[in-house]
Amino acid sequence: MWIEEEEKKSLSEMSKMIDVAFKISCKTLPYDHAFSLSNEILKYLPWLKGNKLTGIQTLHGPESGNGWTRAENEEIFLSKRTRLILRIPKSEYDKTCKLEGETLKVLGNDIKIGKASKKPFLTVRDLICRFVLTDDDLNESDFLKYVAKEFENHEIHLRKAICGKTKSFTINGDQKFTRSLMIADLSKENSIKLQDVGVGIGRIFGCGIFLPHKSIDAVANFKED
Fold this sequence. Notes:
alpha+beta; Alpha-Beta Plaits; 5-stranded antiparallel beta sheet; 4-stranded antiparallel beta sheet; 17% helix; globular
């Protein structure tokens, strides 16, 4: 007899979460749409509330770049390439696809939801989080200390980080403050882990979700072995 060696799983396959990208049809949205978008999606997928790591990314037009800077009062113009992206447990993919064909009513705009597709995590060295919930009076140094403590809970040592300016948006009538955050020079394992667990709270409103940083590493120089 012989026992075949188990096929080695890629790091992205070992992640607990996955992104689901939906094609959409919508021309414009106000920048401050996170709360309304979340409420609409929860009407169709109420179970999203059951996992604190489940997230709904806000929509970004082509002019938003990688999300590092954006004026708060501008209207977002969405292209045909724009996708609505939900971060969910891998086991819930089929349930999430039930959003296909629905029309979301978001601040007077219709978002028609099209076909869904899986979007596995990329193993990249540098990650960005567009929105990390914070207090408006928390300075940059204290903010980074808070982030470092969050990472320690997941056995990740913060080595290189840059935070952006404070932004605000409205959640249930209350003004909330966020900072953007870039984490650099991650190991492959920690890159996937951070995409799994995120940082802070508020995933359902698009906060705490890590994405590959497009302009620094890309994938070319950091592919899995």
